[in-house]
Design a protein that fits this description.
Blueprint lengths: L7 H17 L6 H7 L4 H7 L3 H26 L3 H18 L4 H8 L1 H28 L9 H13 L14 H16 L2 H16 L1
Helix pairs in contact: 1-4, 4-5, 4-7, 5-7, 5-9, 6-7, 7-8
Length: about 210
């Protein structure tokens, strides 16, 4: 569904449903739960959405649109490639602090169309965003000029998935947010020139003081 074409009731339902998915996981929320949370009848809910699959798909699509808008703003408004990455790091921390760890697993197992939507976002928008950031950093002298941009960008996408691997990072010992931020810092430092390292350390000091 085109986000711009959503009616006010649809937006309200999708926002409520997404908040519930973040708190409980997608599998842990039923259409009954959504209707009860909104104090509306299931009949009214089904007037706007034919089933839970549609709610999941449309809320995922709305969320992806929001994320893409924020990422594009970072690319346009930040002062350099490392500044952009630190803004993305803050966004990642914010997202992972509110999203239930089972959400992506639920998408993959029970809502294949929504999972395909997420994968298209990842393998298209996210991949190109990472590539542009690397190229920007190389032009600014912050990242090494011998980097294979495509390989590094695809490696970065694989690194995003890594913290969700419970065999490597058992959730009872590691938080996804903790691992994501450590992995992103390692990624930045691995690409950085001496000038880039100095800038990363400066940003880290500012972030830690905050």
């Amino acid at each position: 569904m085109d986000t711009a074409a959503q009616t006010q009731p649809q937006q309200r339902i999708l926002q409520a449903a997404f908040n519930m998915f973040c708190q409980r996981g997608i599998r842990g929320v039923s259409m009954d739960d959504i209707a009860q949370y909104l104090a509306m009848s299931k009949k009214t809910l089904y007037k706007w959405f034919k089933n839970k699959d549609q709610v999941v798909f449309d809320s995922t699509e709305t969320y992806i649109t929001t994320i893409q808008t924020e990422c594009e703003a970072f690319a346009n408004q930040t002062t350099n490639a490392i500044d952009e990455l630190f803004h993305l790091m803050a966004l990642t921390k914010q997202v992972l602090s509110v999203i239930h760890p089972s959400v992506f697993n639920d998408l993959q197992k029970y809502h294949p169309e929504s999972w395909e939507l997420w994968m298209r976002h990842k393998n298209s928008f996210m991949l190109e965003t990472v590539k542009r950031n690397i190229e920007r950093g190389m032009q600014e002298g912050l990242f090494r000029n011998d980097l294979d941009v495509d390989v590094m960008a695809r490696m970065r996408l694989a690194m995003i998935d890594l913290p969700f691997n419970a065999d490597i990072f058992p959730p009872n010992h590691y938080s996804i947010s903790q691992v994501q931020l450590a992995v992103l810092e390692h990624y930045m430092l691995g690409m950085a020139t001496l000038k880039g390292h100095k800038l990363i350390n400066m940003y880290k000091e500012v972030t830690e003081e905050e």
